[in-house]
C-alpha cells in the first residue's frame, strides 16, 4: 500500500527533477516547436517530463501517466499521475517567472494530491485531500469571499476564449472588484493562498487543471467545469475555481446567462 506521505515524497521528487531540467534552460536560447494545437513546446518541456517519467517508471511502475509532452500510458491503472512539466510555456519562452510544474494524482477518478511548483519564485504549493494545503510547508487557505462584487478574478489571457465564452467571462469579470490577466498556473496558487478569489478559464487540458484542482480543493476552494461538474480526464477544458461555494454558485450562474 502507498500512503499519502509516500505519494507526497514521490511528488516532491518529480518536481525536483523537473525543476533541474527546466531551470537549466530558463532564459537560455531555445529551439521552439509549434505543436498541432499551435502551442509552443521547447526542449525544456520534453526533458523535464522525461525526467519525471523515469522516476515514476522506477518507483511506481504500475501507475498510469497522463503527460502533456509524451502522452498517456496505463490509463486503466488505479492511480494516474497527471503531469505538466512547464505550464506557461509562453511565459517560459519570454523569460517571465510565472510558469510552473503541475502534478496531479488521480485515484478512483478523484484528485487526491495536487502540486503547483514555481521554480523561479521558489514556491511549492501542495494540496492533499483531507490534509489541507501548504506553500513551502506553511498552511494556506482560500479566502472567505462570497460575493462577485467583492471578488478578485484572474484568467491567463483573453486569447484563450472563443467569442461566446469571452462574452460570458467579460460580463462576469466586469462585475468583480478587480480583474487581472496573466500568471498562467500561478493564479490557481494565488486562489489557494487567499489573494485571488476566482479563476475562470477555457481551452484547458487535464494536465493544466487537475494538479491545481487538487491544490484548491485542499485549500477549501471549489473547482468544476462551467456546468458545475467535477473535473476529470474527460472534461471539456472550461474551468471555474472559486474560494467559496457561494461565490462558485454565483459565478456559474453568471457564466450561464
UniProtKB/TrEMBL annotation:
<dbReference type="InterPro" id="IPR020583">
    <property type="entry name" value="Inositol_monoP_metal-BS"/>
</dbReference>
<dbReference type="InterPro" id="IPR051090">
    <property type="entry name" value="Inositol_monoP_superfamily"/>
</dbReference>
<protein>
    <recommendedName>
        <fullName>Histidinol-phosphatase</fullName>
        <ecNumber>3.1.3.15</ecNumber>
    </recommendedName>
</protein>
<dbReference type="Pfam" id="PF00459">
    <property type="entry name" value="Inositol_P"/>
</dbReference>
<keyword id="KW-0460">Magnesium</keyword>
<keyword id="KW-0479">Metal-binding</keyword>
<dbReference type="InterPro" id="IPR000760">
    <property type="entry name" value="Inositol_monophosphatase-like"/>
</dbReference>
<dbReference type="InterPro" id="IPR011809">
    <property type="entry name" value="His_9_proposed"/>
</dbReference>
<comment type="similarity">
    <text>Belongs to the inositol monophosphatase superfamily.</text>
</comment>
<keyword id="KW-0368">Histidine biosynthesis</keyword>
<keyword id="KW-0378">Hydrolase</keyword>
<comment type="pathway">
    <text>Amino-acid biosynthesis; L-histidine biosynthesis; L-histidine from 5-phospho-alpha-D-ribose 1-diphosphate: step 8/9.</text>
</comment>
<keyword id="KW-0028">Amino-acid biosynthesis</keyword>
Amino acid at each position: 500500500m502507498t500512503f499519502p506521505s509516500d505519494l507526497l515524497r514521490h511528488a516532491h521528487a518529480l518536481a525536483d527533477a523537473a525543476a533541474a531540467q527546466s531551470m537549466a534552460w530558463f532564459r537560455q536560447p531555445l529551439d521552439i516547436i509549434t505543436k498541432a494545437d499551435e502551442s509552443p513546446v521547447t526542449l525544456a518541456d520534453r526533458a523535464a517530463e522525461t525526467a519525471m517519467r523515469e522516476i515514476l517508471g522506477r518507483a511506481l511502475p504500475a501507475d498510469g501517466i497522463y503527460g502533456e509532452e509524451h502522452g498517456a500510458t496505463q490509463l486503466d491503472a488505479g492511480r494516474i499521475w497527471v503531469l505538466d512539466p512547464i505550464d506557461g510555456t509562453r511565459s517560459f519562452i519570454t523569460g517571465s517567472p510565472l510558469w510552473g510544474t503541475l502534478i496531479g494524482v488521480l485515484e478512483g477518478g478523484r484528485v487526491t494530491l495536487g502540486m503547483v511548483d514555481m521554480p523561479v519564485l521558489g514556491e511549492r504549493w501542495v494540496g492533499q485531500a483531507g490534509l489541507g494545503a501548504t506553500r513551502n510547508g506553511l498552511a494556506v487557505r482560500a479566502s472567505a469571499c462570497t460575493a462577485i462584487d467583492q471578488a478578485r478574478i484572474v484568467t491567463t489571457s483573453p486569447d484563450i476564449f472563443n467569442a461566446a465564452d469571452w462574452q460570458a467571462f467579460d460580463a462576469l469579470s466586469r462585475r468583480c472588484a478587480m480583474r487581472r490577466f496573466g500568471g498562467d498556473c500561478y493564479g490557481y496558487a494565488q486562489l489557494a493562498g487567499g489573494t485571488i478569489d476566482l479563476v475562470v478559464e477555457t481551452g484547458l487540458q487535464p494536465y493544466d487543471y487537475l494538479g491545481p484542482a487538487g491544490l484548491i480543493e485542499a485549500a477549501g476552494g471549489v473547482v468544476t467545469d462551467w456546468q458545475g461538474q467535477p473535473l476529470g480526464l474527460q472534461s471539456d477544458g472550461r474551468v471555474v475555481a472559486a474560494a467559496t461555494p457561494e461565490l462558485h454558485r454565483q459565478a456559474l450562474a453568471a457564466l450561464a446567462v
